[in-house]
Amino acid sequence: MTFGALRRGGVRYHLRGTRNQSQTRGDHPMNRTILNSLAAVLVATAAFAQPKAAPATKPAAAAAAKAAETPQPAIDIVNKIQDFGTVPKGEKIKATFQVRNTGKAPLEISQVRPTCGCTVASFDRTIAPGATGTITADVDTAGFTGPISKAVLVFSNDPTAPQVNLVIKADVRAFIEVLPRPLVIFTNVLQGEAATQKLVLASADGSNFKIESAAASSGPYQLSYRELPAKERIPDRKGSQWELTVTVPANAPEGMLNQKIVVKTTSPKAPEVTINVTGAVRPVVQVIPGTIDFGTVAGDALIGHNVLIINNRQGAQLQLSDVKVDNPNFTAEVLPLQAGQRYQVAVSMKAGVSKGAQKATLTITTNDPLRKSIEIPISAVVQ
Question: What does the domain layout of the chain look like in residue ranges?
C-alpha cells in the first residue's frame, strides 16, 4: 500500500507499507509514526546533500595582500647598543650607528629623538634600497658619574619597525674627585661681606697630578689652590690632593651667582674638572621694588604705591632719617613695620596734576654705612 510521496531537492520519494486487515481504512497510528520518521531522515539527507556557498573574500585580507605586493623599506641597525666601557668624567662620547635599508623602497627617517643628556649631531634622512646611512649622537659625561644608559629613538617609514631604540652605555668615572661635592653654594652672602668656601681635589685611582690653572666662566670670584701637605691630607687615600679656595669678595655686586669653575690639571684621564657655583649676593638694605611706575592715570585721582625697605644685616638696627621726593606733585610717608628691620614707604601722587609725563626721584637716607642713601625713580603719565 502506498502511504504517500515526498519531493525534496528535485527527487520524488515513494513510501509504501502493508495494511493490517484488522485495521479500518483510516491510517493506523503506527503507520503515521513510521511515515514521519522516514520523512525526517529524507529531509535531513537532502539538506546535507545541498552544496555550500564559497566564503566571500574579506576586504582586509585583499588589502593586506595588495600591500604585501608593494615594495617596502626595511630598516636594519646591527649594533643597536654601543657600550663605551669606562670613560673619564667630562669626556664627550661620540656614537655612530650604521643604518642599512634592506628593503625595496627608499627608507625615510622622519625623526631622531634623544633622551636627556644626549644630543643628535646628524643623521641621513633618506637611504636608498641596499644603501647604508649613519646616525651620529654625542653624550657629554661632565654631568654624570657611574653607569649611564642614554637612548635615541629613531622613527622611519618602515611599516614593520616604525620606531627603533638605540642605546649608548658607559661607566663614567671621576679620576679626580671633588670633595665633598663638585658644587659650591653661597646661601647667605651680604653685599660688603666676603664669603669663602674650600674644596679638595683628590685622585680617585691613586695617581699623582698637579693643578695648572683654575678660572671661572664669569662672576666676581677669587680663586686660589695649593697641594695639601701630609698633615692636612684626607687619610687613607693615595695620590695627589689639592685644596681649591673659592671666595666671593666684599665688593661683589648684588645679584644671582650661577657660574662654572674649570680646573685644568696634568692628569691625562681628567685634564679638566668642572665645579658649579650657585647662590646670591644680597644687598645689606633691600628695596622692593627698585622703581615706581604709576602707569597712565587720571589727573583727578589720588593714587599711591608702597616701597618695602628690608634690613638684611643681622644684629644691626636700620634707621631711616629722611625721606623726600624732588617733585611737589608726589608725597612720601614712612610707616615702620618692624622697628630697625622693616619699613614701608607710601608714595602718593596728588589729585589735580596737569596732563603729561611726571618724573621724580624718591630719596631715602639711612644709617647703614654701605648704603647711606637710596634713590628710587618715579614715573607717571597723567591723562
Answer: 2-40, 75-173, 176-282, 285-382
